[in-house]
Amino acid sequence: MSRAHPLLLFSRFTWVKVHLLTSEAMGEERLTAEQTETCEKTASKASIYCGKLLRYKPHGFTVSVITKALLGLLLFGVVWAVTGPACLPGQNLFGLVILFLSAVCGGKLISVFRFPRTPPIPALLGMLLAGVVLRNVPYVTDAVFIDQNWSAALRNVSLAVILTRAGLGLNAAALRRLKAVCVRVAVGPCLTEACTVAVVAHFLLELPWIWSFMLGFVLAAVSPAVVVPSMLLLQSDGFGVQKGVPTLLMAAGSFDDILAITGFTTCLGIAFGTGSTWMNVGKGVLEVLAGVLTGGVMGLLLHFLPSEDQSDVVLRRCCLLLGLSVFSVFGSRAADLGGAGGLCTLVLAFIAGLSWKEQKAPVAAVVGRFWDVFQPLLFGLIGAEISISTLSAYTVGLGVSSMCVGLLVRVLVTFCVVLFAGFNMKEKIFISLAWMPKATVQAAIGSTALDMARSAGDEQLQKYGMDVLTVAVLAILITAPIGALAIGLAGPKLLQQETHTLDEGERESTRVDGLESKL
Fold first, then answer.
1. Are 363 and 168 in contact (CB under 8 A)?
2. Which residues pair with 497 in a beta bridge?
3. 443, 460, 461: which is closest to 452 by C-alpha?
4. Which end of the chain has the least Cβ crowding within 10 Å, N or C?
5. Main-chain phi, psi angles of 90, to 5 degrees
6. 58 in a domain, yes or no?
7. Are the C-beta atoms of residues 488 and 233 closer than 8 Å to each other?
8. 222: three-class secondary structure by DSSP
9. What are 162-175's pLDDT values in tens digits?
10. Range of the domain at 343
11. What does the alpha-carbon distance between residue 18 and residue 64 come to, in Å, rounded to a whole number?
């Protein structure tokens, strides 16, 4: 005979005791047999109901939605309880909380829509649209107010987090293994697109040359947030694995971003220099060198600190890494070397990851969780910077035209750089199409020039900065969903699928051999 659950026994005895006390209060000396039997039946039914309630464990989509809604309400409730009136409609904290929750919901909703056998539409698109909606819906705009200083600070923190994550994700072994083809795919399309956009934007948008090149490098970066998940989905189904196409694109994507960020920071230093043209050029180069050297020194510091014999070494490494990254971004601005911060963060995370080797994975996982929090903030705040009423059809049309010309050149150059890499015609076309999406880097650095222009108080520079940000947002809205769908739809049609099953070790060996045979 199985033992009864303690809570069931407790409920049964409780019912009996309550009835006894009630009877004594009424002056009864003892319970009759009928009353005792009735009491025991009632207690038995109650214990059965308690047992069913304890054994019931809700699950499924509905419970998940309720849990997330409760977490959202709890977040707002805690902030309101701590800050009071500062979290009421029209105040800064209210706007930040509503923006964050709206961006999270927008990302979840946009991910629901997908075509069969294709990667989902990137969640960042829904986050961006949530920010645009909150900024441009009447009455909602007044209630969801966000201070510009807070917005800039949070976007800079998000920039530090995403660049840290990118630095940790760089694979030095893949770069050594892929050699020439990786360099060609990363460098050629990036530089040609940046130069093409710069020339077109200079004449169409009437931007100064340095601001045109700044826009060019903002648009020249491919988005790992779109490319990597799509490549992993194709790779899991065996498409392109034998030739190493997914591995090539995932490895080259990070180095493409480094080149674009380096070019952007150089132009940023020149644009906000106060001396002669040559002095500004020298200052831009100096900022790049300062970022690389400072990041290298900080990365070496994290090789020694904290030591491996300390407790909670992963937590301490995360705190030091993220703390130094945020300090680099903000400290470079304070030192009037604004272009050095982003590059310093990339180099810092890359060097630290090299020194940690296999122990890098848990740190990268923690940084990834931080990015889960700051990603909705970054894309939501970027979207909230766009006021549709102030945009002119002239600027939007010419900006999209500049972007499209740059994309066309990028696709053609990508096709050319893989001509002699051992791929067939279909694979070359696929690589060219997969090298289009824009998202993460555009959101991370697209508003940097506008923030610095606002700090300088120059209205003309603010206009240039807003033009750069507007075109960057348009690039995300247009290329992110199109790129994800193009990869998902074209991959199974253009890439060869493995016809036999390989274990993981054999599959990795095949990918590496396929890549090395093309070099």
1. yes
2. 239
3. 461
4. N
5. 95, -10
6. no
7. yes
8. coil
9. 888 877 876 666 66
10. 69-516
11. 39
Query: Taking the mean position of all CA atoms in its chain, how far away is CA 495?
Result: 28
C-alpha 468/C-alpha 211 separation (Å) is: 8
Domain assignment of residue 204, yes or no? yes
- Reading phi first (left if > 0) and then psi (alpha if -120 to 50, else beta), residue 145 is in beta
In this prediction, residue 213 carries a pLDDT of: 93
- The token duo for 354 is 């090299």
List the CATH number of the domain containing 264. 1.20.1530.20
The separation between the first and the last C-alpha atoms of the chain, rounded to the nearest angstrom, is 73
- CA 94 to CA 258: how far, in whole Å? 36
Query: Of 389, 381, 387, nearest to 470 (Cα)?
Result: 387
Residue with tokens 């002056």: 27
Do 93 and 86 contact (CB within 8 A), yes or no?
yes
Phi-psi region of 80 (alpha: psi -120 to 50; beta: other; left: phi over 0): alpha
Residue 8 lies in a domain: no
d(C-alpha 349, C-alpha 164), whole Å:
5
CA distances from 108 to 112, 118, 124 (A): 7, 17, 9
Residue 267, CB-side half-sphere exposure with 13 Å CA sphere:
26
Chain segment 204-221, per-residue pLDDT in tens: 988 999 999 999 999 998
Residue 165 and residue 440 in contact, taking contact as beta carbons nearer than 8 Å: no
How many structural domains compose the chain? 1
DSSP-based three-state secondary structure for 239: strand
Measured distance CA(476)–CA(489) in Å, rounded: 19
Q: Measured between alpha carbons, how far is 370 from 460 in angstroms, rounded to an integer?
A: 36
